[in-house]
Amino acid sequence: MSDATVTLEGPSGPKPKKYFTRRNLFLYGTLIIISAYYLLPLYVMIVTSLKGMPEIRLGNIFALPSNITFEAWGKAWNGASCTGDDCGPVSRGLRDGFMNSVIITIPSVILSIAIASVNGYALANWRFKGSNMFFTILIFGAFIPYQVMIYPIVLLLGQVGLYTKLGGLIVVHTIFGMPILTLLFRNYFVSIPEELFKAARVDGAGFWGIFFKIMLPMSLPIFVVAIILQVTGIWNDFLFGVIYTKPGNWPMTVQLNNIVNSVQGVKEYNVNMAATILTGIVPLVIYFFSGKLFVRGIAAGAVKG
Amino acid sequence: MTSVSVQHLDLSFGSVQVLKDLNIDIEEGEFLVLLGPSGCGKSTLLNCIAGLLDITGGQIHISGKNVTWAEPKDRGIGMVFQSYALYPQMTVRGNLSFGLKTQKFSRAEIKERVSRVADILQIQDLLNRKPGALSGGQRQRVAIGRALVRDVDVYLFDEPLSNLDAKLRTELRVELKQLHNRLQNTMIYVTHDQIEAMTLADRIAIMRDGFIQQLADPYTVYNRPTNLFVAGFVGSPGMSFVDGKISGDGSTFTFGNVTVPLAEYDGDNTASTSSDVKLGLRPEHTTVHRAAIEGKTVVANLELVEALGSESLLYFIVEDQRISALVDADEKYEQGSTLHLEFNIGKASLFDSATEERL
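^ inputs. structure came back:
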């Protein structure tokens, strides 16, 4: 036995790891600097929103608040305390806008994803006559600048009586999400082996049977990607919101703009910061909870081909 | 009785014609293997029979019914795919019963069928697992099971063993043969592996470029290949081909300074129209001698020895042409030595160099 141990000299087992190599220092140094660069504005926003106006006037934007106050958050959410109709939409606060945004986002996301997933599935697996043509036209839609279509859509919505209504905005969001979502779903379904689809056909499943029982259970990652894209896209939309709705129906982003860009009175930086964080919090939460699935979905062939 | 009948089948993808006027009749209980190189249309033909591809022309009959326009589920077929194609989110039991559920079988019937098939394939222990937790061989068993629960007349196999390693492939091949002996169903099996074809088939259809080159039992395909393509494709190690000339009366074959008598040749018409022919010799039909036998052997130079384990494959050069021979591995020959070859003409094949047909 002792002979055997003698021959075991030199390196053996796992290689010892050094933590302070030049490579590690460089790598983590870069990462820390870059994340600080991106996190700094967020930090400034949060501390500023927790300060009162006198403290802000001191000009130390990086300093922690000496007196933490949530007054600005309340004001951003509920609006300035004013009475009567002379307040106008400007001083209304974000509360109404938040509700409008929720009412716009939820149906738009569900509708657009429901339609686009079936579109993508049909284009990937049930090649019908003219399906390539249909796909080309749909994809072409993704490259037409929105600005070209703004006025025709105003007229169109006016004709059907949806102009300035939330329903109209939902229809617009659903349609504009269609090209990119269809592409996303088509590419995902194309990456699912064709033999699986064939096996299901031999087993007697039809168009909807295969979609709901075979394809959907395999598609969680791509649905998460679609949900993230749509929720952030629709929530953050400003252009359509300001054009196709009237003041009472304005989404949160438009309200935010009105608060931040208000020209009357003193610029309340703390209220602006709080309002901005409030508006951005929904996409932020979505990313936070589904980031992992998002990456997996993207990696699973979502953006390939 | 005819089980599957394909008549005048045409299939085109756009301007590319894949299958042209293809006819084939498959007897009930027959094990037919479609064999050919990739791109020959064998899987396409199988997909047409299954109803997974819309055909351009012709008819398909299964069990006496014209199913040309029928949906796959209504054709009375079960199919096994190369990539197993198991539904990943379902358990093995779910995979086996999915087809029965969509066809609204009663719960008791489904349970009965699943357990019967699980018994046959010995996958009872796997029923509650997901496909991801199975090995390749187990997955393919489940895939075969999914076809079997359908309890149909015809089973289609699309290269079912190609994704498995060599050892498993051999094991499952034997099991498939036993399964066929037991069930006596019609089976159509697509493969590019000639060993699978030879071992499993009652009849082999060898395909190239959308045409069936030869449809015969394995013995005939191996010993009397209908043309040069079949001769070269079937057999491993492959046949050696020697370019030469045939005498006008078809009695001798000459290449270089060597003349081989064809008295023992087993063919239909040795009296060829052209004199340029190829002599096809399988390695095991060439005998190696250390000493010459007058009138029987030709002088050959041993170029290379390949040890295959139980046998060795010897490559010879005779009159600038390469001929291989299979010998027992215990027989040791020196590379570069001069030896003497005897051809078994009774087992050889002659092909017209121009038409490539067997004489």
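Confidence is low (pLDDT under 50) at residues 301-305 of chain A. The longest helix of chain A spans residues 269-302.
thumbs up if we can close this ticket
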